[in-house]
Amino acid sequence: MTETPKLAAVATLEELAGLLRRNDRLMGIDLGTKTIGLALSDVERRLATPLETIKRVKYTPDIERMLALA
Q1: Structural domain count of the chain
Q2: Which residue, of 9, 16, 20, 42, has the fewest CB within 10 Å?
Q3: Is residue 3 part of a domain?
Q4: pLDDT per residue as tens digits for the range 10-24
């Protein structure tokens, strides 16, 4: 089993590129006041498609849902 690398809270684009494996996808987050929009990139990281819109409730359940999707 391959271990997933841990990401820092903040990383430069160069650091992020070094952490990504081939075919890893990226999740985009659009943080709004009432909803959180999530999008998922393709394996080539060229296009993103909508994944889910989360209705904001409280921090913990919002983050738990995002982590479940990740």
Answers
A1: 1
A2: 9
A3: no
A4: 778 888 888 889 999
